[in-house]
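question for whoever is on the cluster today: can someone run the full assembly for these? two chains, 439 residues total. i dont have access anymore since they changed the login thing
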Amino acid sequence: MNIDDRQQDLIDRFLQGSLDRAELDRFLLEIEKNSILKKELQNQQEIMEGIEFHGNKNLRQRFSKISEEVKKERKSKGSSNGKIIRFILVSAAAIALLVMVSNLFFQNPDSKDLYAQFYTPYQFSNDRSSSLNKETAAAHQFYNKQDYTQAIPILKTILETQPNNTRTQLAYGNALMHTDQDDLAILEFQKIINRKDNLYSDQAKWFLALVYLKTEKLESSKSLLQQLSEDTKTDFHKEAKELLSKLSD
Amino acid sequence: MQIHEDTTLIKLIQSGKAMDNDRAFKQLYQTHKDPIFNMVVNNSGDPEDAEDIFQDGLIVLYHQIKKGSHELNCSLKTYLYSICRNLWLKKLRTSSRVVKLSDTLKHYIPIEESSLRTLEENEQKKVISEFLDQLGEGCKTILTKFYFEKIKMTEIAQRMGLANEQVAKNKKSGCMKKLKVLMKNSSFFK
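^ ran it for u. tokens below:
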């Protein structure tokens, strides 16, 4: 016999320790009276422990990767003042490690790894108008120095007066991604795509697909990549196809 | 970017985003591993033991932060060291390798035994973990996000591109049913 949604919700909240005192008392009373619910609780407790074991196993794998990264960084830092031969050896080791890591990406891709692999920040290059505009020049300067925290308010101010300035909007979206304001970045890229009448729609789709990947909205990401991979005229056709195939592995 | 504040690290771990979590874990590796590593190696352990103990300590820390119940009256450094110290003492006790432990940090706090329970392993947990792999990515993701990462259903729906919380709940319920069928049909649970 199955339990209902309310009972399922109570079991979940009981196992997560989020029932308040009164709810807990009522739940414990219900369990005493209802042997099916009691059995179900026991069953789900075992399942939760299994899921926890599974999650811990994945955490250990991530820790091992991070540990290697930190060791590698320490080694390369230590070698920067050393002799040339030592430098070459460490570099060779680092390259070998990179090859191993990239092989690992190939064998077992996850969204975070793929995002890191495929994301290249938008090139916010100077044009004639920006050299004449103090604000735009400052935005370029901070953005290209990767000082996104400083760049964001300036880019935002520019967009308040020029909401259809797509290049600025792409840079703004990228800066938001870099500072983990992913939901805001999504909105900016969506605005560009919805305008339809510009030259930058594909770039916006590409970055939107990547920010979806970063935030683990895989279906939304795949849908955009599908569109880009089917359009042979776009600059992102090849990359989208490649990323899509890795996501489908 | 260097992250120094414990509160920032805690927020990164609580966020439930893999990238944020890994930034925090990397920072913990960079700043807190050495005293723990030295404590293990100075007390009859080898580098491999030290790595294992540090990873186990991080797992315990992760769960305590997720539960919102880690002791905020001490720094993360002290807390992590205390967990690892406790774990190493347990391991030494079971292998009867050393009697008195020499510390590399002056301060450590008592750790509740219940917080270490997450590290206990048994055959049943392994079998359920294998069933989880058999369920496919969608089910594995939703069950892990809800039960392991403690992410709320509304957020899971948003992250997985599902229409709303109810759709996510239905999906989770379907996945649980599939998992229970696998368990029911398994000789292990008979």
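summary bc i know u wont read the tokens: Chain B touches chain A through 46 residues (CB under 8 Å). Chain B has a mean pLDDT of 88.
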